[in-house]
Amino acid sequence: MSKPRDTWVRPYLRRYGKVLALAIALGVAASLFACALMFTSGYMISLAAAVPLTVLALHVPSLFVRIFGIGKPLLRYGERLSSHNWVFRMMSEMRRKLYLVLAQRTSALGDGAGQTTLGQVLALLTDDIGHVQDLILRGMLPLVSAWLLSALILIGCGALSWPLFGLMAATLSIAAVVAPLIAALTTKARIMAAACAQERLYDELTDDVLGIADWVLSGRHGDYLHRIDDQLRTRDDARASLRAFERRMRLATQILFCLCTIGMLVWASSVFCTDASGSALLGALATSGSENAPAYAPNWIAAFVLCLFPLMEALAPLPDAAMSFVAQRASLERLNAASTRAAHARAGSTCEQRIDERPLEGAALAHPAIELHDVDFAYDQAHPVIEHLSLSIPFGHKVALCGASGAGKTTLAKLIYGDVVPCAGKVRVGGSDPATLGAARCRAFGVLEQQPKLFDMTLRENLRIGKPNATDQELLDALHSVGLAARLEQMPHGLDSRIQEGAFNLSGGEAHRLALARLLLADAPIIILDEPFAALDVATEQVVLDTIMNTFRTKTVIAITHSPTSTAAFDRIITLETP
Fold first, then answer.
1. Are the beta carbons of 226 and 181 closer than 8 angstroms?
2. At what angle do helices 308-315 and 141-160 cross, to 10 degrees?
3. Lowest-pLDDT choice from 11-25, 93-107, 395-409
């Protein structure tokens, strides 16, 4: 199976290629200025430590110190500004894209992501999207900048002295190529183990936190804490192994640069402390043309040795960059896989037009709205939830699903919605398999949960979640249909009034009716209500029930309910029994 095509980094690299090149160029220039600053500073400090032959001898080095001292932070600031600016702009677009991908893969009746668990979705949101940012800022940019810097330094060393070129070529090849390659290959398994441990932790946390009430009520909260502690310990052990390897690589890099410093000291001493004319350009200039040349030898030695330290600063982090690059590539692969699954979900529907274009006004239809033929379903084979269920619901009918807890009411709703597929038998919606509808499910179904989600936005924005291009008149008509016209008049800013998160400034009945108005705007032909009356008192329940029946009188409505007072209003009552 071929790897998914990259749709997260390459398109942005092509779009922002010029800005990326500018950031790399500024980063290399800043490193060169840092080396030049240490070079001139070392020469000047060594010269000033002894009595100079003339006061003017300090003028030229001090001038270059000021130039490089001012230029280095300016170039570094420009590099940070350009790279972070376009990366953060890119990340804003990526986060928007990720939410769209998850919206296409997530439903309102469970995790809804096929084989994607809620923990994996959490990992995509919290870890992977941030790792793509690090892939560029902490992986790609340092590596490319260091390689370009090394090439320029080798060119300069080759122009000065072949022995110096050999010394720097050996050092730079190990520091910039061999060490990062060893780090990437050696730690790949550890990095994947840490990532898997983190993903399992997310799975455990999301699953256990969502069921925390069951853990507490059963008196097994201690077991819950032990499970989480075990997962945390596994993840921390994997990360500790990585940190130990990082420390060893840093030590090896420091030893390498220590040896390089000794080699530079030996080379500079051999060139600048002899009267013989060397083949290197600086060696010839330093040992000829002046009878006082030996007096300047310590200055040149200090300049070349100190020049290495900024180079160490630029190259020492490369093993860490290579290791993080491996981890970030794994995140990128998961993001690309999520995009590919979402694309397949969009393209997998062969019946979107049939669902969207069918009539709803009671005409004779080729297929009922919902059909189940001898359906079996079980989350595990030892405990079946639904067995040999056959069912036909015509368009426009109102059906109540009743039964004890665990009888399979929510599972049946998931089967109808296409969130899960039956172990045996067939489920059809309008003659089509709902699991193959992909993004068309959002247009074919409307779902109202027990606690409808209202966002900390204006009333207009909350309603337009159902229909983004709805006009104000359509919004007002929807509010009137669900009996909220009088409540709207009481709001200080009308449609621009803010709905607090959790709908704390609305009553329970008003929140449900506002969610119903949103479903009405979406105009989905099939409405699934998951315990819509559970949190309501008797009076409010009757108001909401009347609103549902009036608002969705032409729709197919399936309501999961335990309320005996509400079932009389439905055309049909289906009672499920525990297998």
1. no
2. 150
3. 93-107
CA dihedral 553, 413, 368, 481 (to 10 degrees): 10
Give CA–CA dist 137/330, Å, rounded: 16
Nearest Cα residue to 511 out of 459, 553, 447: 459
Q: Compute the distance between CA of residue 530 and CA of residue 204 in angstroms, rounded to an integer.
A: 25
The number of angstroms, rounded, from the C-alpha of 360 to the middle of its chain's C-alpha atoms is 41
Residues 483-498 have a mean pLDDT of: 82
Per the document, the length of the chain is 579
Listed in sequence order, the residues at least 6 apart from 148 whose beta carbon sits closer than 8 Å to its beta carbon are 24, 28
Model pLDDT, residue 258: 92
Q: What is the CB neighbour count within 10 angstroms for residue 571? A: 12
Give the span between the Cα atoms of 339 and 206, in whole angstroms. Answer: 22
Determine contact, residues 150/92, Cβ cutoff 8 Å.
no
Q: Cβ(363)–Cβ(424) under 8 Å?
A: no
CA 95 to chain centre: 7
Provide the 3-class DSSP secondary structure of residue 425.
strand
Do the Cβ atoms of 162 and 279 come closer than 8 Å?
A: yes
pLDDT, tens only, 351-390:
333 333 333 333 334 456 788 888 888 877 667 788 888 8
Which of 246, 261, 275 is CA-nearest to residue 38? 261
Region of 431 on the Ramachandran plot (φ > 0 left; ψ -120 to 50 alpha; else beta): left
Q: What does the alpha-carbon distance between residue 75 and residue 80 come to, in Å, rounded to a whole number?
A: 9
Per the CB < 8 A criterion, the answer to whether 137 and 79 are in contact is: no
Q: Can you tell me the distance from the alpha carbon of 396 to that of 561, in angstroms, rounded to the nearest whole number?
A: 19
97 closest CA partner among 336, 303, 304, 333: 336
- Vertex 53 angle, CA 156 and 35, to 5°: 25
β-pair partners for 445: 526
The three-class DSSP label of residue 375 is strand
Tokens coding 492: 């200080």
Average pLDDT over residues 318-340: 74
> What whole-number distance in Å separates Cα of residue 172 and Cα of residue 150?
6
Pair of tokens at residue 325: 């690059």
d(CA 107, CA 414): 10
CA pair distance 342, 528, nearest whole angstrom: 23
Q: Which two tokens stand for residue 234?
A: 């596994």
Question: What are the start-end ranges of the H helices in 16-140?
Answer: 17-49, 59-105, 118-123, 129-134
**CA–CA distance, 45 with 298 (Å, rounded to integer):** 10
Q: Up-side HSE of residue 324: CA atoms within 13 Å toward CB?
A: 21
Answer whether 243's CB lies under 8 Å from 235's CB. Answer: no
Stated pTM of the model: 0.55
Query: Quick check: 271 and 242 in contact, CB under 8 A?
Result: no
